[in-house]
């Protein structure tokens, strides 16, 4: 099957690409390399250096005619979205609309979308938090992810374009950049390798410590592999 992966040179997207290629799929990668890295690219994938907002994206679709579109390209930072919400909207919402329009025009069958569990649910009052918990987005980034999910529902209803949305928790693993609010595992590992002691904060309002749930990147890649044929119209 021919699969187009946006953000396929990034931390998570590159592992998704590797998983698809290992299973015999033909993979096309679209990435602007702002946060992605060439060294992450699988040599068996066909690569287009391009922003997902570009009008030239339709040329890629016209040439390649992917059956599945896997969307990982994004503005990924919550703090950055607070500082520049318009840019966040342009990339995350404008980008997926461009992708959906191309998918419909060139007859793609399905979009697999990388959403965000933690950001969308906000400060959940119920722990553990199920997928049916009412979203409470508290940042432009979270709002853009939730809006993208609604666009997927809209395009499925009006055009029959199938989708599966995967709401990731905190993903960690090889190729993760050791900085940013989601990179604590990579940050700690880098410090250990340097012989340094990582900084751990304690808060008076959390005397027992704080917890976050993490998901290994290869498990995320497997979920994207299963989503090719499963999870029709579902948010998981």
C-alpha termini separation: 23 Å
The geometry reads as globular
Side by side, the strands of the main sheet go 3-2-1-4-5-6-9
Structural class call reads alpha/beta
Question: Can you tell me the number of structural domains?
Answer: 1
Question: Overview of this structure, please?
Answer:
- The protein has 8 helices and 9 strands.
- It is an alpha/beta fold and 236 residues long.
- It has a single domain, classed as NAD(P)-binding Rossmann-like Domain (Rossmann fold), CATH 3.40.50.720.
Briefly summarize what is shown.
The protein has 236 residues and is an alpha/beta fold. The chain has helices spanning 11-22, 57-64, 78-83, 85-105, 117-121, 140-159, 184-193, 217-226; strands at 2-6, 26-31, 46-49, 68-71, 110-116, 162-168, 170-172, 214-216, 234-235.
Task: Note the main attributes of this structure.
236 residues; globular; single chain
Topology:
Elements: E1 2-6, H1 11-22, E2 26-31, E3 46-49, H2 57-64, E4 68-71, H3 78-83, H4 85-105, E5 110-116, H5 117-121, H6 140-159, E6 162-168, E7 170-172, H7 184-193, E8 214-216, H8 217-226, E9 234-235
Parallel strand pairs: 1-2, 1-4, 2-3, 4-5, 5-6, 6-9, 7-8
Helix pairs in contact: 1-8, 4-6
């Amino acid at each position: 099957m021919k699969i187009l992966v946006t953000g396929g040179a990034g931390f998570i997207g590159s592992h998704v690409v590797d998983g698809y290629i290992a299973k015999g799929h033909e993979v096309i990668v679209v990435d602007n390399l702002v946060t992605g890295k060439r060294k992450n690219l699988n040599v068996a994938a066909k690569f287009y250096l391009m922003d997902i907002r570009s009008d030239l994206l339709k040329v890629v679709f016209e040439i390649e005619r992917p059956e599945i579109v896997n969307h990982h390209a994004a503005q990924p930072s919550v703090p950055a979205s607070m500082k520049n919400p318009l840019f966040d909207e342009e990339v995350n919402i404008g980008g997926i609309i461009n992708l959906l329009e191309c998918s419909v025009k060139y007859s793609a069958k399905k979009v697999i979308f990388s959403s965000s569990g933690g950001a969308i649910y906000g400060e959940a009052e119920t722990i553990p938090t199920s997928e049916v918990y009412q979203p409470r987005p508290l940042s432009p980034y979270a709002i853009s992810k939730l809006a993208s999910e609604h666009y997927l529902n809209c395009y499925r209803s009006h055009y029959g374009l199938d989708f599966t949305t995967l709401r990731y928790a905190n993903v960690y693993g090889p190729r993760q950049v050791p900085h940013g609010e989601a990179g604590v595992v990579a940050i700690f590992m880098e410090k250990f390798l340097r012989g340094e002691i990582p900084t751990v904060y304690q808060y008076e309002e959390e005397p027992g410590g704080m917890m976050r749930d993490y998901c290994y990147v290869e498990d995320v890649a497997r979920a994207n592999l299963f989503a090719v044929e499963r999870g029709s119209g579902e948010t998981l």
